[in-house]
Structures are given as structure tokens and as C-alpha cells.
Amino acid sequence: MKMLFTFYNPSGGMETLNRIRCKALKQKHAECHLLYSIDGEGRKNIKDIPTFIMNEEEAIRRLIEREKYDIIVVCTDVTLLMLMRKVGYQGLLIFEIQGLGTLKTANAILKDISARVMETADAVLYPQTSHLKQLLPEHLPNLPHFCFDDPLDTQDFGYAAYPPKPFPIIGWVGRIEENKNWRDFLLIGARLLNQHPEGYLWIFGDPSLSEPREKAMFDKWVDGLQLRQKLVMHANVPHEQMADYFSIIGDSGGLLLSTSILEGFGYAVAEAMLCRCPVLTTDSDGIRRFLVHDVTGKLYPRTNINKAFAEAQSLMRDIPLRNSIIDQAETHIKAHFSCTKYADNFFGMLRKLKGINSRTEQL
């Protein structure tokens, strides 16, 4: 069985998801390829998976004709979804949503694309995220829906021991844009550095994806809060090395801080937990799938900087609670988000769709 997974560019959580699920499905003897419309820094993470960078109709037509895919999964890009039928693809076509930003943005996008998706796709796929589980049946009522958790590489990505840093590190992963809510990170980070002046703030991301206006505002805030000397930017770290960084942050006595408004899944949080790095995060929907307050991590109400500061202090100073959270978080991720579980769910979806002919064949 041959499958193609598509997205705009190989970066962030989608690059991670596509790479890990290809590994998961390969274990079930599926051949998986990737298609991205434009290139990106995350491409260097991809090894041993046929990957195509193209956005011209004729090039995509030749690819589809040559490879004869049984299944194509198109994430978010409704234009590409429709193009697949236009270039003659007659196999199973699944439209995937992993996250669409804030609730307001998600509603607007789904309202805009719903008619085209229902005309073109055979099914819709999304993670176990409450706002997506609410919105998608409302906007796409006439399609089969499949909803299951994304996978993590629980075998090859995990904790690694290094000599501990002599200072606590507060980590943050994301793009400098509204939904990732970098303002909360800087405000909370500044409060924590007042209590832990030896500490540092580490930011991980792809600067090429930052929104220029947001980046200018970010720089203004950094200088206004006098954080420049305490802020370390880690740009385009290879994914396999992120396990080392998460491990180092955890062993430093610090934590990963996630400040997102909404997350479809939240790979950075789940991967930090897998690497024994404790997490403090906003209650950003998708996070609820794996983070239980004071059990596998800590939650705070978005914009409540005082509460976030108090929870971070608890996580850094209450050592028995910290150790309990670290142990339970790692165990929980390994038990519930493995590649094996994802592959079983994915092939279960295909078995249910087996009787559905593509729309092209029905004509």
C-alpha cells in the first residue's frame, strides 16, 4: 500500500507528525511519501522517506500518475485537495486538520473551505482535540470523520543524561506569532528571572516563519523587559537534538513553558514530557489529551501571569511533586502515544473506508 502525506512546508509540528507517522506505518509495510509545496528548514530532519517539494500543477500531475498512490492525506490546504482530483487522482483522498490557530480563526477558515472539502474529500481526519471535535462535524457534516491521537517516537526519542547546568533554564518552542502567545512567555520569564537571576530563557524555533510585525514587537518587549542578556535563541535545531535540549532543561531544575492560545496536539509539550522535562502550559485544548494538572504537568489560565508564576515556582521548588510529575509524564506518553497505537488507528480507519469508492469512480 502506497501513501502520500502533504502539507505547505516541512516545519514545526506537521514536519514531526509526517515523519513519525511514516515510520509508524512503515512498520505495517506501508510505503509512505511526503509532498510539500515549499521547502523549509525542517527538511533536514527527514531521512529515508521519499520527499517532494513542488507546487506546480503539471509536476504534481506527473507525480500522481507515476506513483499511483492508494491513499493521499492532504493537511489544511484545500487548494491542493482540489488539485488532486483535477490532475486525475481517483484513489482515497483524506482531508486532515491538525490545528487552525485561535477559535475565531478556525471558525472563519472552516466556513470558507467547507463546501470545497465536502465536494472533494472522502473523509476528514483530526486529533482528539475538543474544539476540533466540536467544529468539524458542524462545518463538515456529510463526510466520514476519524479522530485519533497523533504519534510520538517513543522508541528513539527520549531522555539523555548530560552534566547538569548550574542554572535553571525556562524553555519555549514556537513561532513568533499570535497563537503561540510569546508575550506571556516573556512576562512569566521575566518574573522567574527576578527570583532566579542566574537562570536563562531558551527559545527554539524557525525564524523564517516569524511574522515580521510580531517579531518587531517581540524585540521591543525583550528590550523593554531587559531580557536581552538572558535570552538564548536556538534556531532550527535538528529534531533529533531536541531530545537532548529537553533533557538538559529538565535536569537544570527548569521547565518548558507553553503559552499557546490553542493547540491541536502540542508536539513540543508531549516531547518534553517524554524527555523528562516538566511542563507548565496554558489550558490550550489539545494539551488536555496528555497533561493533567499536578499529575503529568501543570496548567495555568491564559493571561494569568501571577498564577503562572506561582505554578512555575511550585514546579521548580517542590522537588517531590516535580519528580512525581516527571515520572508520570514520561510513563503516560510512552503508554498512550506510541507509533504502534497510531498505526493501528490509521489502518482501522482505512478498513472502515474500504467500502467507499472515490468520488471520481462514482461519477
From TrEMBL:
GO-annotated molecular function: glycosyltransferase activity
Residue stretches making up the Glycosyl transferase family domain: 166-330
InterPro entries the record matches: Glyco_trans_1
A Pfam short name: Glycos_transf_1
Annotated keywords: Transferase
Top-level taxon of the source organism: Bacteria
Bilayer-crossing regions: none
Cross-referenced PANTHER family: GLYCOSYLTRANSFERASE
Protein known as: Glycosyltransferase family 4 protein
Annotated organism of origin: Paenibacillus rhizovicinus
